[in-house]
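Lab notebook: predicted structure, single chain.

Context: the supervisor wants predicted structures on file for every construct in the current expression panel, including those that have not yet been purified. This is the next one on the list. No modifications to the sequence; it matches the entry in the shared construct table.
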Amino acid sequence: MVELKEVEVKKDKSVFDQISEHNHEKVVFCHDKETGLKAIIGIHNTVLGPALGGTRMWSYASEAEALDDVLRLSRGMTYKAAISGLNLGGGKAVIIGDAKKDKNEALLRRFGRFVKNLNGAYITAEDVGMTTKDMEYIRMETEHVSGLPESMGGSGDPSPVTAYGTYMGMKAAAKKAFGSDSLEGKKISVQGVGHVGGYLVELLAKENAQIFITDIYEDRLREVSEKYNAKVVGMDEIYDLDVDIYSPCALGGTVNNDTLNRLKCQVIAGCANNQLRDEKVHGPALIEKGIVYAPDFLINAGGLINVYSELTGYNRESAYAQTERIYGYTLDIFELAEKEGIHNQAAAVKMAKKRIESIGKVRSTY
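Prediction complete. Output recorded below exactly as produced.
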C-alpha cells in the first residue's frame, strides 16, 4: 500500500492568493440578478495567443469549489494548447447551476455579453453541461465562440475528436505498460459516459475490449451498456475493479488519497481534466504503484485541436490527423519522464512550459 500524506487545505487562503498560485493573468466574476447568472471566467496565460477553453455548467457545492475548478481547468488549458503546438493560451469558464434546470437562452446570452467584454482575450466553447445549441445562444452576443454547429460554419461537437485523442493516448500507454498497443481483450473501466466518454466506449468496443462503465445518469448508462455490451457498475465500485486500464472521463480529482490505494489497474488514461487531485503527491505515488499515467491535458487535447482548426479554417480530416499525433507525443513524454526521473504529469508540464517560455522570448522582441 502506498502511504500518502494528506494535502493540507488552507481555508484562510484569499481569492488573490489562489489566483496568484499558478500565475493567472485574470479572473472575472460574472453576476446578473435578472437571469440568475453566476459565472467565473479564468484566463491563465495568453503568451501563445488568446485563451481558449470551454464553459462548464455544474452544481458546485460552493463558490469556493467553483473557483478552484476554474483555476485548475484554465491552467490545464494553457498546457494543453502549448504541448499540442497550438497558438493559443489557456482559459476556462464555469457557470454555477444545474444544467438541466437552470439553463436558458437569457442566461446564456447574458454570459455571452461578459465574454464579449473581454475583447477576444477569452474564446469560449462547449464543455460539461453545455451543447452546441448553447454555443449558438452565446454567439448571438459575441463572436468569441468556437465549437459552433456545422450549419453555422463551425466544427460541431468536439467530443468525438476528444475521444479519439484519448484513445490514441490510451493505446500509447498500453504499449508502455503491456508491450503492445492493442486493446483487444483488455479490461477497461470508463468513469463517465457522457459526450466524450460515450464516443470513447464506442472506440474501445470496436477493438473488442471488455468494458465496465459508470455514470450519474442511469438512462445514459442503459443506453451505452445496451449499445456496446458494456457492464454497468456502481459509482464507488469502479475504483475496486480488477482491470487493466482505468479511464476517468467525468470530473477531476478522482485519483486521490482514497482511491489510489484501491485502484488495481496498470494504466490510467482518460479524458477528464485534472485527474490527479494533487500532482506533487499523486504523480510520484503512481510511479511507486507501477501505474502508467497518460497526462490528462495531453491526451484529451483533441477537442481543443478541433475547435482551434475552426478558427484557422476548419478541416475535419486535418483535425483528426493532428489529434492522431497524440500517440507519439505521449510516448515522448514517457521517455522524457524516464530520462529525468520524474513522473509523467511533471514531464508533460515541463514540455509545455518550455514551449511557452521559448515563444514568449520570440514575441517579446517587437
